[in-house]
Write a structure and sequence with these properties.
- With 182 residues, the protein is α+β, with helices and mostly antiparallel strands.
- The chain has one domain: Chorismate lyase-like (Chorismate lyase, 3-Layer(aba) Sandwich), CATH 3.40.1410.
- Helix content is 22%, strand content 32%.
- It is built from 6 helices and 7 strands; from the N terminus they run αααβαββαββαββ.
- Strands 1, 2, 3, 4, 5, 6 and 7 form a 7-stranded antiparallel sheet that branches.
- A hairpin with a 2-residue loop joins strand 2 and strand 3.
- The radius of gyration is 16 Å and the shape is globular.
């Protein structure tokens, strides 16, 4: 997945050295369900639009996080979360084949249903510590996210590894400017 290039992911201690708008901090730090928070905070209809869902080769760093060998592919799911007509979040999820086997196979067939709703309804769900990243206008990821709406300046995002028993998936969420006007 070289289309994204490199991102610098920060741990909590490193995050506070960055200049982050205070209005963005509560979104970045919230470890509960983003889907649930968006649904509650959106005065208009919340919806999910799938941009793409396909098999890809993960980056070396993603392989390491997901404990995969270099030959294993993952299902990439890219969506935009909307509040009414306003795009508020770009989400990028990587789901290994092993995770899609057995009772979690429905993850491959979510279509326009929110992944977060499925994840947070699982009693045994565990979430790793959050990591954060700032995406700059000159990156390929920024250009991809920019197709979801008008952007100015950098974009903040977060990612974490979810564990459904012994199965993993990596979810990255990038917060678009419309989010702060919800």
């Amino acid at each position: 997945m070289k289309q994204f290039g490199r991102s610098n992911w920060y741990l909590k201690t490193q995050l506070f050295q960055q200049k982050i708008p205070s209005s963005m901090m509560s979104w970045l730090m919230d470890e509960k369900s983003l889907t649930e928070r968006l649904i509650k905070g959106c005065s208009k209809q919340f919806r999910v639009e799938v941009l793409s869902q396909r098999w890809v080769k993960p980056t070396q760093a993603e392989m390491q996080l997901l404990s995969l060998s270099s030959r294993q592919k993952v299902m990439l799911r890219q969506v935009i979360l909307f509040c009414g007509d306003n795009p508020v979040v770009f989400a990028h999820s990587l789901i290994p084949y092993k995770t899609l086997k057995g009772k979690h196979r429905r993850l491959a067939y979510l279509k326009n249903k929110p992944l977060g709703k499925y994840l947070f309804s699982n009693v045994g769900l565990k979430r790793s510590s959050l990591q954060w990243s700032r995406i700059l206008p000159n990156s390929k990821l920024y250009n991809l996210v920019a197709t979801s709406g008008e952007l100015t300046g950098s974009i903040w995002g977060r990612r974490s590894l979810f564990h459904l028993g012994d199965k993993k998936l990596l979810v990255s969420e990038y917060f678009l400017p419309n989010l702060l006007s919800m």
